[in-house]
Amino acid sequence: MYCFFLICANFCDFLFVFFAYLHIFYYFCSVIVQIMAIGNVTPDSFYAASRLADTDRVLTWARTSVEDGADILDIGGCSTRPGSTPASEEEEWARVAPALEAIRNAMPDMPLSLDTFRPEIARRALEQFGEMIINDISGGNEAMYEVVRAFHAPYIWTLRGDLELPRKMPQLCDIDGLILDPGFGFIGSTEADYACMREMKRLKVYGKPILVGVSRKSMVWRPLGLRPESCLSATQALQLYAIEQGATILRTHDVKETAQTVRLSECLMLNV
């Protein structure tokens, strides 16, 4: 009888260790959070510190972002902040092309993302600078879908709060590397942004990466009576909640602090 209880005790110890390691393995295989650094080659992006006036500043930002923990560098050449006047297509290209070229030459293996809603800008970038993510805040159109299909480019589809996914979802299933973005800041109101974030985990059923971009946006600073320059800690609080809700990519102006938030989320999930 004693031997029987000893075997049971050892077996229970084995099960405890086995499931502990299984939990760790499952976490790292299923919830790897990447950091996308925001760089704007524009004179009018809503957060002034993200504006990169020339290629020297682009490269300094790129190297610093990588050192701080960025997995992806996102370049945008046309401000989409509320009330802004979009740059012309040629002006946008004149801004992004030198930045993309500089980063490609200095960091040929670094994953890039191009923030554009224009199919022709996406096509020219993919032709000249190779594989990159196309980050389209507009929600897309058939011309853009044709470009990303032709180049097999990963595509960020901005849902603008529609977590049920529109009927056009079947049209996008053949796009390589489809990434879902709930679209915070483009949903309509601060209240709608928070309602969307509370329900965001419903997107997990589609089995796609989920990108969240709340960095220094009005949904962060407006309820607190702050400005974009003074809401770093509040941004981190929302990013931590976004991870809990299923975010797998965080798009951020503040890479070092976001990397710390990601690390602490790992500690919470793994009880480290």
Describe this structure as you would to a colleague.
- The structure is a single chain.
- Helix content is 47%, strand content 12%.
- The chain is of the alpha/beta class and 272 residues long.
- It has one domain: TIM Barrel, CATH 3.20.20.
- Strands 6-5-4-3-2-1-8-7 form an 8-stranded parallel sheet, covered by helices on one side.
- The chain is globular, with a radius of gyration of 21 Å.
Shape annotation: globular
Structural class: alpha/beta
- In CATH, the architecture is Alpha-Beta Barrel
**Which regions have little confidence, pLDDT < 50, spanning 5+ residues?**
15-30
Strand order of the largest sheet: 6-5-4-3-2-1-8-7
- The overall pLDDT average reads 87
The first-level CATH class name: Alpha Beta
Instruction: State the order of secondary-structure elements, H for helix, E for strand.
Output: HEHEHEHEHEHEHEHHEH
Q: What's the CATH superfamily, by name? A: Dihydropteroate synthase-like
Q: Beta-strand percentage?
A: 5-15%
Please state the oligomeric state of the protein chains shown. Answer: single chain
For the terminal residues, how far apart are their CA atoms?
38 Å
In DSSP terms, counting alpha (H) and pi (I) runs of 4 or more, how many helices?
10
How many extended strands? Answer: 8
Number of domains: 1
**Rg for CA atoms:** 21 Å
Main sheet characteristics:
8 strands, parallel
